[in-house]
Write a structure and sequence with these properties.
By secondary structure, this protein is of the alpha+beta class. It contains eight helices and four strands, in the order ααααααααββββ. The protein has a four-stranded antiparallel β-sheet with strand order 2-1-3-4, with no helix packed on it.
Length: 203
């Protein structure tokens, strides 16, 4: 068997893996990422019968995606394939969006346990919380939507949970108790510097 035939067979098997992966969620992303890895690193795309000039053209023509998306799938495979069996053992639920957000902080130089700690902290939580956790890990916690590092003055508001109207509270002498009882509402804290709002209490 010639080298071209062997490479052609390998390309066929890799594309079969890729197509199967399209049907299987996060496991599918790992399968697709492995296929991209095999095709890209093994230069199998050069044996495509259409004769595409670059891997970018192969990704667009044969895989139906932008080359950036193909590289992201490859990164998911490289960074998560060794962790996925452990995630399954611990019953950790991950989706593609969460995994994609975590890619920048799952660096190769981190230990297996460090990576698993990151995954444990971000499994089964809203995407907004994942984004904030990633910012904190990158040393950009001040940009997170759930953190305000300003030590300036604060304005206090109450929000009616029925009509969603906001009412500014009397902050005289630092007291958070309003002079008027609005009934059922959330007590909110609005930083005058960062303009971020936090629920302080519920009445």
């Amino acid at each position: 068997m010639t080298k071209d035939l062997i490479m052609g067979d390998k390309l066929h098997e890799a594309m079969k893996l890729f197509q199967e992966g399209k049907k299987k969620g996060i496991v599918g992303a790992l399968m697709m990422g492995e296929a991209v890895y095999l095709i890209k690193e093994g230069k199998l795309w050069m044996n495509d019968c259409v004769g595409v000039p670059t891997f970018k053209a192969f990704a667009q023509h044969e895989m139906g995606m932008a080359v950036s998306q193909a590289y992201r799938l490859q990164e998911i495979f490289v960074k998560l394939s060794g962790l996925w069996p452990l995630c399954q053992q611990e019953g950790l639920e991950l989706n593609i969006s969460t995994v994609t957000l975590l890619l920048p902080v799952l660096q190769v130089e981190k230990s297996l346990e460090e990576k698993m700690d990151i995954i444990r902290d971000n499994a089964n939580i809203p995407l907004e919380a994942v984004k904030n956790n990633v910012l904190a890990l990158q040393g950009k916690g001040d940009k997170a939507t759930d953190v305000c590092l300003h030590n300036g003055k604060f304005e206090y508001y109450r929000k009616c949970v029925n009509c969603n109207k906001f009412f500014r509270m009397d902050d005289k002498d630092g007291c958070c108790t309003p002079k008027v009882d609005f009934g059922k509402e959330d007590i909110l804290d609005l930083s005058q510097n960062g303009n971020k709002v936090y629920v302080l209490d519920k009445k």
